[in-house]
Amino acid sequence: MLRLFTTNRIRKVMEIEGDWDFQPIHSEEEIPHEYSYRLPVPGCWEMHPEFRTYRGKGVYRRKLDIEDASSLRFQFKGVSHTAKILFDGLEIGSHYNAYTPFNTRVIHDVKPGRHELVVFVDNSFNEQSKLHFANDYYTYGGIIRPVGVEKLSPVYIERIQFTSHFRDGIWGGDVVVYVTNSGATEEKVIVRGSLTETRLELGEIRVNAGSTVPVKGTIICPDVQPWSTAEPHLYLLETQLFVNGSPLPSDDLVERVGFRTVTTKNGKIQVNDEDIILKGFNRHEDHPLVGAAFPYALLVQDMEIMIEAGSNSVRTSHYPNDERFLDLCDERGILVWEENHARGFQLDHMMSPGCQEQCLTCNEEMVQSHYNHPSIIIWGILNECASHTPEGRELYKEQLAQIRGLDSSRPLTYATHHREKDLCFDLVDIVSFNLYPQWYTNEDPSVLSDQARRWADEGGGFGKPMIMSEFGGDGYYGLRDSSRVRGTEERHADILERNLAAYTQKPYISGMYIWQFCDCRVVEDTGWLLSRAGTQNSKGIVDKYRRPKLAFDVVKKYFK
Ligand code: ADA
Fold it and tell me: Which residues form the Glycosyl hydrolases family 2 sugar binding domain (predicted)?
């Protein structure tokens, strides 16, 4: 399942799921002569008994039977972490970063018959990989999210961008349709669309060979209902292309949108002009049965458990999430802080060659591919990186300006643990703190949050909404002891009780995200601090199999 709604009615799109051939390799040049394994796609190779901790390179292969001559393009929703794609032996695309989707280039005139799709995958940590390295979560290997193949006409709709607005008491939206001409000659096309009963005439445009043209329009929809957490109304925005005067559309693209506004004023966050308090979890997309390759049923299970705990929001720590999960958030009315892929970069890491470029690419892919999700109300960047240094500040500034340029409709933030030393509060709309009172320090959460408010106010964040973006402690599932010592489920519950009791009373706190939803696997050998027992971060309010710990009911009490 690529998405939770039909994205095309005219263009043919098919998922390529199931078993693919697989072979581990040692160097990129090595093309396997034979494939000894078969692995499921989507899937992580760690789920195969021989690759439980394999970090390295591997090749996936799939034979495809094409029935009639066509132009094809492949969609990859996530390959962890580096991919090179070959079609019949020719390279048609490459990509870095497990957590953002990408398309290959269009391959024209594919003849009917049997063809071969080969994907080189690498999950090793090396100098070139700045986002994926040994960290406090796990970088799995493989084609971890769905793969699709599209049959494209030479001129096609690349993507749609929809921004809803509420003007003079009426909902409407700005629409941008990006049209690409992959052919060899200039084309004249007509772009049309519709949303519920309302038609959208975007007129005729010329698209040069090899270029993409944005076509803009505005749609007024007096009869729609707004999207909200209580009633998450969604609508299909359908767009079509007509080429050479033909009355029949040659291509289409459907997006699912919602009408809502997000603002920050008076020290609060508003959705549709109403102040909201975000109550939710930091969630790693990780499960012992599937790694990072979630089937739909497990995505739903996570969602239902978070809702059962009373949450209205989720932070996608620390990378963009599976699109189907974001689709679910749209459907269930869960507010999302979506975050770029970055955790704990020291300044030298941020400054090292390639790091900023990889972040900028990730930001662009995240914003462009997830722009239309009404559930996403905040973009976040660079969790716990060097926001306390002048050089780091420049990099934060560049990334935040980039995102504002791509999307001015959502507030921006980043989560810091640099306390009064932070230098970037003035750059964002919301200030967010990762503090672990009662776990990494013995501080009192109530006193500490008041202090944090002052650090923000005095450091450029005066009057901005504030979020407690991480707090919690370890609780080992099943470790119960009336002594309530550190690591027991009892102490874990106590820590969350003290934190939540404090934060839910503070009028200046607009959100709280517990660290974390579920226990997650971490990379071994990350240094003394992160050498976590059982290679697991055990701060989940449910364990890795989603069994509730004692803390679950505490959270529920405060969130509900
Ligand atoms: C940090 C970090 C998380 C996690 C957490 C912890 O604040 O942002 O990814 O590592 O600490 O468990 O210590």
Answer: 48-149
